[in-house]
Amino acid sequence: MMAELAYRGTILSNEPLAKYTSWRVGGPAQTMYLPEDKADLIAFIAGLPEGEPLVWIGMGSNLLIRDGGIRGTVINTRGRLKDMLLIDSERVYVEAGVPCAHVARFCSDLGLTGAEFLAGIPGTMGGALKMNAGAFGGETWRIVDQVEMVDGRGRVTQRGKHEFEVAYRSVKGLDNEWFLSAQLQLQKGNSEVSQQHIKALLEKRNTSQPTNKPTCGSVFKNPPGDFAARLIEACDLKGYAIGGAMVSEKHANFIENCGNATAVDIEALIEHIQHQVLNQFGVALQTEVCRIGEKA
Q1: Would you please indicate which residues are annotated as catalytic (active-site) residues?
Q2: pTM value?
Q3: Which helix (H) or strand (E) holds 80?
Q4: How many C-beta atoms lie closer than 10 Å to residue 278's C-beta?
Q5: What pLDDT was estimated at residue 217?
Q6: Mean pLDDT calculated for residue range 177-192
Q7: Are the C-beta atoms of residues 5 and 51 closer than 8 Å to each other?
Q8: Where are the alpha helices (DSSP H) in the chain?
Q9: What does the radius of gyration of the chain's CA atoms come to, in whole angstroms?
Q10: How far apart, in Å, are the Cα atoms of 257 and each of 211, 248, 289?
Q11: 3-class DSSP state of 48
């Protein structure tokens, strides 16, 4: 049990997680902490029992929480680690809980270019850092200069991007530590041109993706030289459903919660898609979505 200390944030017990995820599924968190700010979060983590399991969530996209929920403590950063400021003429400080779309607009308003693609990522900066999220040809770590980390004992360190092994939708080099913030290196540009670029990207996203449906974003990584959506569609799986989970008719690399899906339904559909694509094309699709938690 955690010691009863005077934290400024909120501690919730047995908190249902479905309302915190973009798929709207997931069992309860044994404990959830809503930090007041970064300093409060660091103090909270430092006071946890040694070895306490920690899971971080932001906007709950790119995440499948199983129906049995999560043992240990869930840290919810969305709207809490929210500071964002200009460091100098071309660098921006962003905390982990800031939505990526807000980062894109903030940088654009300042006349800084390079972060426009973040407008197409439906998550927070912390999640984008963890998986090297990308959209429309851009990738998160291409604009990262350095990051601020916290470990399971509440110790904070600054690390340069060269200390991580970054690849497509993959970041290696994390050792029981999590992202608190990042410094982004951008370029001076034209604010109006940047804003028009963001507008065009969002129009493209809304036209091609089911943005008004409960999804996690893209489910599968694109295999080398191909697209997951093309392979799934070629298997005639658009509209295919298991329980309340359905392959989107609009974009085959999205799975929609039709209103009554469980995590079991979604995971079964993920595995069915993988099986069909492997059988028909010999391609083993790898999931982009992170699957965590206990089975019910």
Answers
A1: 169, 218, 288
A2: 0.91
A3: none
A4: 13
A5: 93
A6: 96
A7: no
A8: 38-46, 100-109, 125-131, 191-208, 228-234, 263-281
A9: 19
A10: 12, 9, 15
A11: coil
